[in-house]
């Protein structure tokens, strides 16, 4: 199994003033499944291509198992990239597509045939070898592309937006397939996505990238509960951010003073208080409770969402639909911010 | 080493310089020779300069002005007829699907593939009978054999990329058929027509063989004069005529270079110019 | 107006003109090649012209020379168009001008460049003069004969000059449409630079330029001006031979001229049919 280290990695494209990737420092453990997450154009695919050796490194290093690979050609890195739009060679049938990498390595024909058949079985496309790629559905094309990458037993698998082109019902299937493959082949895997939900569902760890910079690299839970900045918090769908001032374990905001748990990393002074919508409770408790006006009620099936206002600040909360008392828009209600769910961002 | 690296390497520069030298090489002496009186081996520049070639061209007795005029008249007539016939046919091929379309396309394409020599030799005898031989009109007619297919095929490419929904939208908003054509259809296809017409003009302008066969040496055009000077290896006159001969091509290239993306189906016709 | 009438009306003028001029011309040529020329009192059909054609050594030599010139210039055009298009894909300073020059020959008439070739490559031409100045040759007779030579090198040069940009622009647009991704993918699957070219770029380019190549082939096969100006009188190419027979004062040579022309038309037609088959096979695999 192979680890990947990126050390102060930079990329500036020819003719461009702004770096596409800036001072990337990242450590990916052997056999880990990591997501590069960020809005489109943030530099995540560029980073992927630098790992693959397809794009040159402007500055910094790429290391596999601690060995610098900057100058190793892409075909010798044993890193395979799978593209978003599959890129099956149109003039080859499924088997020829899958066997491409083996033929490039001059693998004997009988071995090639055997390994192609094996891998097609693994991606549930047994017997599809003679089909032309035009005859395949999107999900099947994706599986052929995966098979084509895996058949050469790469050390590292790179997936560019692996689920983006698939219909919703195929995504779950494909996600399971990727997880299966990752487990079975024990291959260090990096995938690129702009969808935070996809990243959370698949990845062991997420590298969040904004504007060519790595802004947070941690387990997915941390992005929800311990975002490093307001922007990260909003990217993960949390709009409950309120300005305040921290003094000890008390944060004073426009909506009142709240108790926070001791040991939060933010220093005393101006802070932003962050809390997930699903962490806010609709009840009156000993502390951290306040009364507010419900502006909107949105029934979403399993969950119901309330928007409420307290002292000019709009809060968002989601509660399980069958748990709550029947509040309607226009009612006043008590809300509680549980002490242990509050996170602070230093300003 | 990497694919994304779009910068040219020294190896690429060899190709660029090779292209530039071999493209320009045969053209540069043509711009010097018309000013040379004596220019002997191994001089790199003429020893005696003169403009006698140009004087000859300007002389009304030299037939050059007549030839230029004939070439222009023929090419303009040929272009107009080709546009009038090629645009409707191109529309039929580009916008409709019908039975036998492949066959029709093949038939229209055939004259640009099959040597014009074979067709023109055969038709000559009919033209003699009809009194079209040795006349300008006869030459115009025979020039249509390569230009109409070219115009039709390139217009069919233009119409294939044209969205007829615009027409329907205009009709539903109350425009008449007539108005729809002038307000909607024509502006959309006009650039395509202009490009196609310019190349049809060039095909006719550059035609030697068909002109000499049907014109019988009585309809003098520029390529005929150039050809006879070239055959007699008179370098100064031949070069001067050659410059006049290639002027329209250069002008047209300036106008159309942005259209030469290779994507348009009109590319197919360039091979016959 | 039904759709059917519309289509018929739109196509009618073009089709009828082509039927009259093109098909009519071919039919008349065919008739005359069989010796049927009522105008000059030849009223019976025979295939004498074809017989004497294939028995004629000059015709066979002409055919061989013509095939040599068209096949070699078409193949060289393909190879050089791909090489130059690959080079022009890169960015470099002066690219706009170089690009313009690259496309420049597309519109230039063949005769102009035949004239230029005479001025540069004849034994007293510019190339010989530069060679003399550089001390490579002492006398103009030492300069290799590349115009009016046995192999038709001057003729091939003109065809290449005209056709490389024509095909090259098509290759460039194919490369552009393809982008870098397929090549990158091949590299990451373990293909070397050469293998990526051989197994990914080439199979995409070739079907795209086959139509252009058949145009090149048929044009060079039937072209008259360039081989007349830059070739030898004997053996000459087939079109020059046909024209010479046609212009012969002896009208008895007329059927033979027509037979030569009909042979050219038939030969090219067969080539196009074969090519269509080939293309059909290629696209059938998709």
Characterise the protein shown here.
The complex is a heterotrimer of chains A (about 350), B (about 270) and C (about 290). By secondary structure, chain A is α+β, with helices and mostly antiparallel strands. Chain A has helices at about 45-50, 95-100, 100-105, 110-120, 140-150, 170-185, 195-200, 220-225, 230-235, and strands at about 5-10, 20-30, 35, 60-65, 65-70, 80, 155-160, 190-195, 205-210, 215-220, 240-245, 250-255, 255-260, 270-275, 290-300, 305-310, 315-320, 330-335, 345. Chain A has 2 domains: about 5-225, Rossmann fold (3-Layer(aba) Sandwich), CATH 3.40.50.300; about 240-345, Nucleic acid-binding proteins (OB fold (Dihydrolipoamide Acetyltransferase, E2P)), CATH 2.40.50. The two termini of chain A are about 40 Å apart. Chain B is mainly α and about 270 residues long. Chain B has one domain: Orthogonal Bundle (MetI-like fold), CATH 1.10.3720.10. The longest helix of chain B has about 30 residues, at about 65-95. Chain C has 2 domains: about 1-35; about 45-285, MetI-like fold. Chain C is built from 12 helices and no strands. In chain C, helix 3 (about 55-90) packs across helix 9 and helix 8 (about 180-190) crosses helix 9. Chain C is globular and about 70 Å long. Chains A and B meet through loops of A and loops of B.
């Amino acid at each position: 199994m192979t680890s990947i280290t990126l050390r102060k990695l930079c990329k500036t494209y020819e003719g461009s003033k702004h770096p596409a990737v800036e001072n990337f420092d990242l450590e990916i453990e052997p056999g880990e499944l990591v997501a590069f997450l960020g809005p489109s154009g943030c530099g995540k695919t560029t980073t992927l291509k630098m790992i693959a050796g397809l794009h040159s490194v402007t500055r910094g290093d790429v290391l596999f198992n601690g060995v610098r690979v900057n100058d190793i050609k892409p075909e010798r890195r044993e890193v395979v990239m799978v593209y978003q739009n599959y890129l099956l060679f149109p003039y080859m049938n499924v088997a020829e597509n899958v066997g491409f990498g083996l033929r490039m390595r001059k693998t004997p024909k009988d071995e090639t045939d055997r390994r192609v058949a094996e891998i097609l079985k693994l991606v549930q496309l047994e017997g599809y070898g003679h089909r032309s790629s035009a005859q395949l559905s999107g999900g099947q094309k994706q599986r052929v592309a995966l098979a084509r990458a895996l058949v050469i037993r790469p050390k590292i698998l790179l997936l560019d937006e692996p689920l983006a082109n698939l219909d919703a019902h195929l995504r779950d299937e494909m996600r399971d397939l990727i997880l299966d493959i990752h487990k079975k082949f024990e291959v260090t895997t990096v995938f690129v996505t702009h969808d935070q939900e996809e990243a959370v569902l698949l990845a062991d760890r997420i590298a969040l990238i904004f504007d060519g910079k790595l802004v947070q690299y941690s387990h997915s839970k941390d992005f929800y509960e311990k975002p490093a900045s307001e922007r990260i918090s909003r990217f993960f769908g949390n709009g409950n951010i309120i300005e305040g001032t921290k003094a000890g374990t008390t944060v004073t905001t426009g909506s009142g003073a709240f108790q926070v748990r001791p040991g939060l990393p933010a220093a005393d002074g101006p802070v932003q208080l962050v809390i997930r919508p699903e962490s806010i409770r609709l009840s009156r408790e000993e502390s951290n409770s306040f009364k507010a006006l419900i502006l909107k009620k949105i029934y979403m099936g399993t969950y119901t969402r309330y928007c409420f206002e307290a002292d000019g600040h709009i809060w968002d909360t989601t509660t399980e639909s069958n748990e709550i008392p029947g509040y309607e828009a226009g009612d006043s209600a008590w809300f509680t911010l549980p002490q242990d769910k509050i996170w602070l961002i230093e300003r | 080493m990497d694919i994304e690296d779009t910068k040219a390497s020294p190896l690429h520069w060899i190709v660029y310089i090779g292209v530039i030298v071999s493209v320009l090489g045969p053209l540069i002496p043509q711009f010097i020779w018309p000013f040379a009186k004596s220019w002997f081996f191994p001089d790199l520049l003429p020893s005696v300069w003169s403009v006698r070639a140009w004087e000859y061209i300007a002389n009304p007795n030299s037939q050059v002005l007549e030839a230029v005029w004939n070439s222009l008249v023929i090419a303009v007539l040929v272009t107009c007829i080709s546009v009038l016939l090629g645009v409707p046919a191109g529309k039929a091929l580009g916008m409709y699907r019908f039975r036998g379309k492949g066959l029709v396309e093949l038939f229209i394409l055939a004259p640009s593939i099959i040597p014009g020599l074979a067709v023109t030799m055969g038709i000559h005898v009919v033209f003699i009978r009809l009194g079209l031989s040795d006349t300008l009109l006869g030459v115009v007619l025979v020039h249509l054999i390569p230009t109409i297919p070219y115009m039709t095929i390139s217009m069919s490419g233009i119409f294939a990329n044209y969205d007829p929904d615009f027409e329907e939208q205009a009709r539903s908003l109350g425009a008449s058929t007539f108005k729809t054509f002038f307000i909607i259809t024509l502006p959309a296809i006009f650039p395509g027509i202009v490009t196609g017409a310019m190349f049809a003009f060039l095909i006719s302008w550059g035609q030697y063989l068909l002109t000499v066969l049907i014109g019988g040496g009585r309809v003098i055009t520029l390529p005929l004069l150039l050809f006879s000077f070239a055959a007699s290896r008179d370098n100064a006159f031949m070069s001067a005529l050659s410059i006049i001969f290639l002027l329209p091509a250069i002008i047209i290239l300036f106008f159309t270079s942005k259209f030469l993306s290779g994507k348009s189906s009109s590319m197919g016709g360039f091979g016959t110019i | 107006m039904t759709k059917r009438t519309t289509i018929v009306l739109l196509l009618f003028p073009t089709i009828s003109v082509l039927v009259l001029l093109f098909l009519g011309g071919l039919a008349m040529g065919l008739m005359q090649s069989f010796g049927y020329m009522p105008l000059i009192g030849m009223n019976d059909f025979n295939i004498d012209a074809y017989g004497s054609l294939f028995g004629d050594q000059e015709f066979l030599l002409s055919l061989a020379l013509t095939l040599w010139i068209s096949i070699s210039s078409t193949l060289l055009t393909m190879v050089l168009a791909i090489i130059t298009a690959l080079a022009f894909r890169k960015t470099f300073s002066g690219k706009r001008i170089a690009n313009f020059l690259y496309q420049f020959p597309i519109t230039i008439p063949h005769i102009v460049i035949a004239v230029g070739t005479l001025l540069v490559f004849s034994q007293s031409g510019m190339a010989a003069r530069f060679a003399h100045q550089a001390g490579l040759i002492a006398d103009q007779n030492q300069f290799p004969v590349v115009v009016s030579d046995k192999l038709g090198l001057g003729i091939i040069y003109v065809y290449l000059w005209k056709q490389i940009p024509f095909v090259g622009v098509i290759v460039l647009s194919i490369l552009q449409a393809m982008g870098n991704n397929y090549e990158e993918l091949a590299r990451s699957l373990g293909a070397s630079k050469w293998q990526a070219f051989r197994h990914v770029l080439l199979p995409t380019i070739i079907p795209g330029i086959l139509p252009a190549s058949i145009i090149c082939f048929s044009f060079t096969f039937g072209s008259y001006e360039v081989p007349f100006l830059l070739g030898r009188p004997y053996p000459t190419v087939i079109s020059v031979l046909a024209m010479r027979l046609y212009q012969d004062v002896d009208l008895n040579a007329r059927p033979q001229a027509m037979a030569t022309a009909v042979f050219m038309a038939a030969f090219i037609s067969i080539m196009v049919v074969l090519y269509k088959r080939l293309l059909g096979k290629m696209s059938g695999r998709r």
